[in-house]
Specification:
The complex is a heterodimer of chains A (338) and B (532). By secondary structure, chain A is α/β, with parallel strands linked by helices. Chain A contains eight helices and 19 strands. Chain B has three domains: 142 residues, DNA ligase i, domain 1; 199 residues, D-amino Acid Aminotransferase, Chain A, domain 1 (2-Layer Sandwich); 125 residues, OB fold (Dihydrolipoamide Acetyltransferase, E2P). In chain B, the strands form five sheets. In chain B, strands 4, 5, 6, 7, 8, 9 and 10 form a seven-stranded mixed β-sheet that branches. In chain B, strands 14, 15, 16, 17, 18, 19 and 22 form a seven-stranded antiparallel β-sheet that branches. In chain B, strand 8 and strand 9 form a beta hairpin. The chains are: A alpha/beta (338), B alpha+beta (532). Chain A: It comes from Roseivivax halodurans JCM 10272.
Chain lengths: 338, 532
């Protein structure tokens, strides 16, 4: 029997035929990267390969790296493996990586979201024999309302605050979630201000051609109280700090899939919690897995044990693969406030 | 129930009590009398009787959601609330209705006499026409445990705002054993009949913890001191030839403590005494450890043997009513003098005795007395300003509890489990061990005492350092040492370590201590010998 297409090592997911890793968490020679979040795109590898769209942010975050880029759908041969990158719908530039060796196809999902958000590249199902899937929200309690209905809630909240003379401070991760929110809010309600961490990413994505509304970075000398009813986008860690108090009267909110749970919503002690995630919900995960046509499912991070048990009970051949993903700066309740 | 759901959402979205009070007051201004009455009932701990078991609910919800039961069961501890778990897994409602809160309460009260299949049909039908928030509330009504961030005090304040009535007067009306079936909104709130319920206790006055030195309270001459007992705070109400025993949680405990029937022989009608209910060790002339009382609390009917082994009495603190007159506005010293006169001469075996005042010349003397509290099985001392009226609720200024510093021991964390509810997704429930030679012997669990930030840090650590999983429990690499603070220690044959702690919590994360330097089982046994 020949080697499997991918194996699971202590450095990460490895392809023996192509001698490369996917999203490794310890330094390796060649790393294929699904997307730019810190738990997937780590420093210290000799060579990187990522999508063209993910490149600029990776350079911004990782500095001088030896980075080769690839278009979505483009095929490339690495050793004995054919690889291609396909949109994962998670954040701009995010990809699932398809790896084919001798006619057998495996797909590594990275992080993904199946609902089109009108901002990043839409998720595309990729047929395969084996699918390595995240399952951050792999429980039936996690189901998302449509983006349009969450957008309406956010706009209502902002408009009401603006009418009552309060700033609306929205905590969201500086790469991905923040820009998705910027793209869906109603610019007509008021001015939009940003924390430096968000604005840094905004600049890079704008330069790539992603469309974002006009924003104004809050600088040390900015008179934060001089704006009428602004929306302020900041990383979650900035909420409740002196920085956030600069805006005077305000209402604070978080946007995350975890806000689905009342306990988490209350623990974060923001005024509002909007249920919006860049990960697939329960139905999204199942739909994506079905569409791959894969028989073998490897689940990596999230509620892996429960999700794999359910997949097995439904006739898939599912296994849990321990990885060091999931300390994701997007949507991880444990680390996000740090 | 859309108005009630909107009220819940408004209250749940904020941590500010003024905003909550305003939302509730607005509801009280617009809702129907029936809905108001039920809202008052719910927020004062009165719930409709359970019509189905939670096991049935789980089964029906899983089936309606099209998921296996085990998957719902696995989701429950992660969400931390069954009512919420069910609301979240159910498919979107098929129809929309807006029937009032009282309608849905009647709907579920009507279930009791029905066949089980019919109950199920009606519950599923309700789910199918309620939105997510309404479903959650409906499930809360079904499962009990109505805790949604509105205290009784806050509800009373909102009701006072909405009706223009005095808050304290309203609080008194809401005390006691009324049920929504026996009263109407009009009879409970609007009609003035102070004699309506002879069993009614007064709202308890609660003390704050004294963190500053007692000198901060001014001259010691203005203060009385007494022991702070570790029992259950209660009120003994004797009126209309009958007696009632209330716990601080306003539970009627008369039947659990038959000892108090005798008090009718000593106390005239129109007497209310505030005191501590304790199991009494007549030989040692001090309360028994709390565990003995706990055995009594757990039983609605008390076996003779237990009644003999753990005889209960009340240590009187205060006299709230005498001859039917409300004494609460009088100075404490005056009330206390009247109490002493009233019960000072009762026979030795009466189920009522005074909680003695402590003599002290100045704060230093009292501090030395306090240090001996454990010898009397007390937790510390209570300080009451001599001229203080009996207020209601937890008010700062006149009454203070000055507890002993807790006992502490340094222990190694060996198991971790995720919390529920507000703490779902964080590891917050830990098991700690001390050394017995080379072995670590578990001796207590603890859940509280760390900051949110520390809980996040330890959670990240637990995830990376799990050695073994036993269901929801993770065995972790023995590494971290925590100082465990506790109020008391007792021998316990049920525990591997042979001891049980009272109120254990994590008082400090000892980053400075390697695990080898944690305390030993011998240290724990020594504490047991000294304080058990």
């Amino acid at each position: 029997m020949s080697d499997p297409v991918l194996t699971f090592t202590d450095r990460g997911i490895y392809c023996p035929a192509g001698d490369f890793f996917v999203d490794p968490w310890r330094p390796v020679d060649r790393a294929l990267i699904t997307h730019g979040h810190a738990d997937h795109a780590r420093a210290g590898h000799s060579r990187y390969l990522a999508t063209e769209a993910a490149g600029p942010v990776m350079r911004y975050r990782l500095g001088e790296i030896d980075l080769d880029t690839i278009r979505y759908g483009e095929r490339r041969r690495i050793g004995g493996a054919n690889v291609s990158f396909h949109p994962a719908g998670h954040i701009p530039g995010s990809a699932q990586i398809r790896i084919e060796v001798g006619g057998e196809v495996w797909v590594v999902s990275g992080d993904y979201k199946t609902e089109a958000d009108g901002f990043c590249e839409d998720f595309e199902p990729v047929m395969c024999h084996s699918f390595i899937s995240e399952c951050t929200f792999g429980l039936p309690v996690f189901t998302w309302e449509s983006q349009a209905s969450v957008a309406a809630e956010i706009n209502d909240w902002w408009a009401r605050n603006a009418a009552e003379g309060r700033a609306s401070i929205l905590g969201a991760y500086s790469l991905g979630k923040a820009q998705r929110l910027l793209a869906l809010v109603d610019e007509g309600i008021g001015p939009i201000l940003t924390h430096g961490a968000v604005e840094g990413t905004n600049g890079i994505l704008r330069a790539q051609g992603y469309r974002l509304p006009e924003t104004r970075q809050v600088l040390p000398d900015t008179d934060a109280k001089s704006f009428a009813g602004p929306l302020v986008l900041a990383p979650p860690s900035a909420l409740g700090t002196p920085w956030a108090r600069r805006f005077g009267a305000s209402s604070s909110a978080f946007a995350s899939g975890w806000m689905r749970l009342r306990g988490v919503r209350r623990r974060r002690s923001g005024d509002r919690g909007f249920v919006m995630s860049d990960h697939a919900d329960w139905n999204g995960l199942i739909g994506a897995i079905r569409e791959t046509g894969a028989e073998n499912i490897y689940v990596t991070h999230g509620y892996t044990d429960i999700f794999a048990k359910w997949l097995n009970s439904e006739g898939w051949n599912a296994q849990v693969v321990p990885t060091e993903f999931g300390t994701d700066e997007d949507d991880d309740v444990v680390t996000d406030a740090a | 129930m859309k108005d009630f759901a909107a009220l819940f959402t408004a209250v749940d979205q904020t941590t500010k009590t003024t905003v909550k009070t305003k939302a509730l007051a607005q509801f009280f201004e617009t809702a129907s009398d029936k809905d108001k009455l039920w809202t008052i009932a719910l927020f004062s701990g009165r719930r409709p009787k359970r019509a189905v078991t939670t096991t049935q609910l789980r089964e029906w919800a899983a089936e309606r959601a099209g998921i296996p039961l085990w998957l719902l069961e696995e989701s429950y501890p992660i969400v931390g609330d069954l009512a919420e778990t069910i609301a979240l897994v159910l498919p979107p409602a098929e129809a929309e209705t807006d029937k009032p809160l009282a309608h849905w309460i009647e709907h579920l009260r009507a279930l009791a006499p029905l066949e089980i299949e019919e109950r199920r049909t009606r519950i599923v039908a309700a789910w199918d026409q309620l939105d997510a928030t309404e479903r959650f509330l409906f499930n809360k009504l079904l499962t009990g445990g109505w805790r949604i961030g509105v205290s009784r005090k806050l509800m009373t304040r909102a009701l006072a705002q909405a009706t223009g009535q005095d808050e304290a007067a309203l609080a008194l009306k809401l005390m006691g054993g009324w049920t929504p079936d026996g009263v109407t909104y009009r009879s409970l709130i609007e009609e003035h009949d102070p004699q309506a319920d002879l069993s009614r206790p007064y709202p308890f006055y609660l003390a704050h913890q004294l963190d500053d030195p007692p000198e901060s309270l001014g001259t010691s001459k203005d203060w009385n001191a007494e022991w702070k007992w570790d029992g259950i705070r209660g009120q003994l109400v004797v009126r209309g030839g009958d007696h009632h025993v209330w716990s601080r949680g306003e539970e009627l405990m008369t039947d659990r403590f038959p000892e108090f029937a005798r008090t009718r022989d000593f106390l005239p009608d129109g007497t209310v005494i505030d005191g501590e209910i304790a199991a009494w060790d007549a030989e040692a002339a001090m309360p028994m450890p709390f565990a003995m009382l706990q055995q009594r609390i757990g039983r609605k009917t008390v076996p003779k043997k237990l009644l003999a082994e753990a005889r209960v009495l009340m240590l009187g603190y205060d006299l709230l009513e005498q001859g039917g007159e409300d004494l609460r506005p009088l100075p404490f010293a005056e009330r206390r003098a009247r109490l002493d006169t009233l019960i000072g001469t009762l026979p030795e075996d009466a189920p009522l005795r005074r909680s003695p005042l402590i003599d002290f010349a100045d704060w230093d003397v009292l501090a030395r007395q306090r240090a001996t509290a454990r010898e009397f099985r007390a937790e510390g001392v209570m300080l009451k300003r001599k001229d203080s009226p009996y207020l209601s609720g937890r008010k700062k200024g006149d009454w203070w509890k000055w507890k002993l510093d807790p006992l502490v021991i340094d222990a190694v964390m060996i198991y971790a489990q995720q919390g529920a509810g507000r703490r779902a997704n964080l590891f917050t429930d830990f098991t700690f061990a001390v050394w017995d030679g080379d072995a670590l012997v578990p001796f207590t669990k603890a859940y509280s005492g760390l900051t949110d930030d520390e809980f996040r840090k330890i959670t990240a650590w637990v995830r990376k350092n799990t050695v073994e999983r036993y269901g929801p429990v993770r065995q972790v690499k023995p590494t971290h040492v925590f100082e465990i603070a506790f109020e008391g220690i007792q021998a316990s044959p049920r525990h591997k370590s042979g001891v049980a702690l009272r109120f254990p919590r994590m008082s400090r994360w000892r980053h400075d201590k390697p695990k080898e330097e944690a305390n030993t089982l011998a240290d724990l046994k020594e504490m047991l010998a000294a304080y058990g």
